[in-house]
Amino acid sequence: MEKSAKGFPTSHVIGFLFSLILTFVAAGVALKTSLSFTVIMWIIGSLAVIQAGLQLFMFMHMTEGEDGKTNIINIAYAVFVAVVIVLGTIWVLTSGHAAH
Amino acid sequence: MGIKWDEFFITGDPLILGAQISIALTMIGIVFGLTYLKKWNWLWTEWITTVDHKRIGIMYIISAVLMFFRGGVDGLLMKAQTSRPEMEFLSSQHYNEIFTTHGVIMILFMAMPFLIGLMNVVVPLQIGARDVAFPQLNALSFWLFFSGAMLFNISFVIGGSPDAGWTSYFPLAGKEFSPSIANNYYAIALQIAGIGTLMTGINFIVTILKMRTKGMTLMRMPMFTWTTLITSVIIIAAFPIFTVALALMTFDRLFGTHFFTVSGGGMDMLWANLFWLWGHPEVYIVALPAFGIFSEVIATFSRKSLFGYKSMVYAIVGIALLSMLVWVHHFYTMGSGPAVNSFFSITTMLIAVPTGIKMFNWLFTMRKGRIKMTTAMLWSLAFVPCFTIGGVTGVMLAMGAADYQYHNTLFLVAHFHYVLIPGVVFAVFAGLYYWWPKMFGHLLNEKLGKWHFWLFVIGFNVTFMPMFFLGLSGAARRTYTFSAESGFAPLFLLSAMGSIVLAAGFAVFCYNIYWSLRYADRNISSDPWDARTLEWATATPVQHYNFAKLPEVKSLDAFWFMKKNNEGLTLKDSEIEEIHMPSNSGQPFIMCVLFGISGFFLVFEWSIAAAVAALGIFAGLIYRSFDYNDGYHIPVDEVRETELSWRNKKGEAHKHVS
Amino acid sequence: MSANVNTSLPLEYQSGQSRMNILGFWIFLGAEIALFATLFGVYAVLSGRYAGGPTHQDIIMIREVMIQTILLLTSSFTCGLAIFEMRRGNKNELIMWLVITLLLGAGFLYMEINEFIHYVHIGASMQTSAFLSSLFVLLGTHGAHVTFGIGWAILVIIQLIKRGLTSVTARKVFIIGLYWHFLDVVWIFIFTFVYLKGLVL
C-alpha cells in the first residue's frame, strides 16, 4: 500500500520517464538500425512487455490490497490465454495447407 | 438500408404458418390471462424487476425449459425428415435452417441458461451468502440472455432462420453465399446473449472469492461451487474471443470488410479458428457445472463425502488450462500439417485424463455407500456409462489421422450427443429433481420422475447409438436425405423411433412439473434428502434473505457435520439483526428491450435506426452511473416472523429459541 | 454487504462492496486482454494480405503516431497523478489532473480520427483488403474504448463535484484509472506490433 502522506509522486515520475525512454528506444531500434527483422522484433517485443509490466505495477498497483494475489493469478491467466490466442492462431493458420 | 416489408414475415410454408398462428395465439392468451387475473403488477414487481438470485435463477430455468422444447421440436423434425429414404417432409433449405437453430438453441439458449440458472439458485446458498456480488448486474445478465434468445427465436417467422450450421463457417455464412439477412440473426443475437454470459462470469468469480461465509476456505467449498468458479474463469477467457469473432462476422456481412471472405485477402478458416477457440472451452463451460451437480448428488445419495475431493479440484483446474489448448481438433481436415495436428491430438488426449480422474472419484464415492435410488441419483448413475461412451469415442476422434475418416459424419454427431446429453442434460435433470424443493417448497413427483428417467435414457440411447454405425458406414451429417440404395434406412428409422421415446420422456417431465406444482405435498422439511451442504441449512423454499444468521463453516460438507454435532442449527432472538438487501430495479429489463430493438434493426441492416436505439442503451448506462440506491433493510420483526414460520416444526432440525 | 467497512484502508477500498467492484473490474480487464489478444491474432494473420491495395509503408505516418503515443503515455501519467492526489485527499487537484488526462485523451482521439480520414482519403478503407479491415478494427476498437472512457470519466467528474470525495466516488475514480492505464498498455502493443513492425518489414 502506498503511503498517502507522501508529497512527491516519485514512482509515477520514474515510471513515466521509463515509459518514454522505452518508447523512443523501441522506435529507434525499429526505424534507425539495420538489424535483421527477427532481432528487431525480439527487441521491440521485449521492450513492449517491460513497458506493460511497468504500467501494471507502477501505475495500476496490481499487487496492492487484499486481492493482490488474486489479481496476479488473474492477469497471469489472461496473459496465458492471450499468448495461446495470438501464437496459436498464427501457428495454425500459417503452416501446412492452411497458409494458402 | 431499411426493412423490406414484403419479405418481413416468412410466408409459403404450412409448418411456419402454423407456428406463426400459434405464436400469435399464445401471445394473445398470455396478455389476456395476465389482464384477466390482474397479474401485471405482480409480474413486474415480483419477477421482472427482481434482483434476487433465486428468482433470476428460476427465470433462467423457465427460459431454458422453453428453449429445450423449441430445440427438441427442431430435433424431432430432423428425425422425421430422415426417418425414410427420399422423404419430402422438409425441403433441403428448411432442413438446413432447422439443424442450425437446433444446435444454437440447445447449446446457447438451453444448456447455458439451465446451468447458469442452477448456479444462480444454488451457489450463493452453498457459500452462505445473501446474494451475489452484483445483484443488479446479475439481473442485467439474465435480461441480455433473454433479449438475445428472443431475437434469435423470432428469426424463423420474421426475416428467415440462419441456415449455415451452428458453427456458421465461412465462406457459406458470408454475404456472398448467404445474401439474406438470416445469418445476421446469428451474429447479433448471440452477441447480445454473450455479453450477458460474460458478466455472469465476472459476477460469480467475485461472489465466490469474496462472499464466502466465515470459515469456508477454498478447499471447504462444495464441488458445485468449485466447478462454477472454474467455469466462470473459462467464460472470462473464452467469451471475449466469440465477441470478437461475431463482431468481425457482423462487419463482413454488414459493412463489406474482408476478414473471412474469399475475396480481398480474407481467410475463411480464420473464422473456424476463432469459433473453436471459443467453442471448445464452451464445451467445458457447460460440462464442468454439470460435473459439479453430479458430485453433489452422488455424495448426498451415497451418504458419503465426495471421494478424492482434492484430486477433483486439481482436475477441474487442469481442465481450465487444457481446455484452451485443444481447439484445432475440430478442424484437423483443414490440413495444418503434421506438427499442428499431432500437437492438438496429444493435448486432446491429455484432457481425457482429468475427466477420467473424476469418473473414478464418483465411482469410489458410491463404493460402500448406502445408496438411495432417487430420481436425481438415477440420472447420475446413467450418466457414468453413457458419458464414458461419449468420452471413448472422443478419444477416437482425437487422433488426427483417424479423424479424416470420421470427420463430418454422423459418428461425430453421435459422439457429441453422447457427451452433451449425459454430460449436461442428465445433469440439469438431476439438479432440478435435487434442488427443486429449494426453489418451490415441494418435491417433484418421484414416480413420474422415474418414468421420465427411463423413457428419456432409453430413447436417448436408441436415438444416438445407431448414428455411430451410420457414421462409420459413411452417412454424412447435415444432409437432408439419403437414397434407398445406401442401406442406411433401417438404422435411420430406428433412430427416429428412439427420438419419439425421448420426446415422450420430456413430455412426462413437463407433466411432472405441472402435477407437482398442483398436487405435491407442501409439508416437507427444509432438508428432505438429508443433504450435506449449506443450501439445505435454511428454509425450503428459501426466504428472500437466505440466512437469518450467516452460518459458520468448520469443514467440508459443513451442514452434515452441523447436524451430526448439533451445532449452529438454532437461532436465538438476540442473534436476529436487521438485514441489508439490494433494491429491485426495472433498469435491466429496459436495457433488454433496448438491446433487442437495436439488435433487431441491425439484423435488418438498418444501421441508423440501430444507432438511435443504441443511444437509449447509453442513456441507460448514464442513468446507472448516477444511481446511488443503496438497498434497504429488513426489520428484525419481519426476520423473526419469517424464521418462526418454518423452524420448530415437527421433524425439523432447525430450532428457534427465544 | 455494505457493512464490512475498514477505515484504515485508502478511501476506495474501504467498503466491502468497493473491494468487490475493484476485483470485478480487474477480472473484466482479464476479459479485455483476451478480447484484444484476439484482435491482435487476427491482425497478425491478415496483416500481410494487401490484396493489391496499399501496404503499411504506403499509409503509416510515423511522426503523427509518435505524437499520439506521447499524448497517451502522458495521459496515463497524469491519470496516475490524479489517483495520487486522491489518496492525499485533494479533491481539486484530483479533478484538475483528471481533466488534463481527458484533454490529452481527446487530443489522441482527434489525431486518430484524422489518421483514419487520411487513410480513407488515400484509398485505404476498411473494405479495401483484409490487412486494412483488421487494421481499422483493431485501431477502432481501441479508439472506441478511449471514447467510452472519456465519456465515463466525465460522468465520474460530475459526481465528484456534486458529492465530493466519498468512498463511492473514490472507488469510481480508481476504477476508471485502471481502465485508462489498461488502454495505454494496449496502445503500447499497437504501437509496437502494428506501427513499428509495419515499418520494419
Automatic annotation (TrEMBL), chain A:
It is found in: Cell membrane. It catalyses: 2 a quinol + O2 = 2 a quinone + 2 H2O. The chain crosses the membrane at residues 12-31, 37-60, 72-93. Its EC number is 1.10.3.-. Pfam families: COX4_pro (PF03626). It comes from the Bacteria. It is a multi-pass membrane protein. Keywords: Cell membrane, Membrane, Oxidoreductase, Transmembrane, Transmembrane helix. InterPro entries: Cyt_c_oxidase_su4_prok, Cytochrome_c_oxidase_bac_sub4, QoxD. Catalyzes quinol oxidation with the concomitant reduction of oxygen to water. Belongs to the cytochrome c oxidase bacterial subunit 4 family. This is Quinol oxidase subunit 4. It comes from Aquibacillus albus.
TrEMBL record, chain B:
PROSITE patterns: COX1, COX1_CUB. It catalyses: 2 a quinol + O2 = 2 a quinone + 2 H2O. It is found in: Cell membrane. It is a multi-pass membrane protein. Binds a copper B center. Heme A3. PANTHER family: CYTOCHROME BO(3) UBIQUINOL OXIDASE SUBUNIT 1, CYTOCHROME C OXIDASE SUBUNIT 1. Catalyzes quinol oxidation with the concomitant reduction of oxygen to water. This is Quinol oxidase subunit 1.
From TrEMBL, chain C:
It is found in: Cell membrane. It comes from the Bacteria. It is a multi-pass membrane protein. Pfam families: COX3. Residues 23-199 form the Heme-copper oxidase subunit III family profile domain. InterPro entries: Cyt_c/ubiquinol_Oxase_su3, Cyt_c_oxidase-like_su3, Cyt_c_oxidase_su3-like_sf, Cyt_c_oxidase_su3_a-hlx, QoxC, Ubiquinol_oxase_su3_dom. The chain crosses the membrane at residues 23-45, 65-84, 94-111, 131-161, 173-196. PROSITE patterns: COX3 (PS50253). Belongs to the cytochrome c oxidase subunit 3 family. This is Quinol oxidase subunit 3. It comes from Aquibacillus albus. The lineage of its organism: Bacteria, Bacillati, Bacillota, Bacilli, Bacillales.
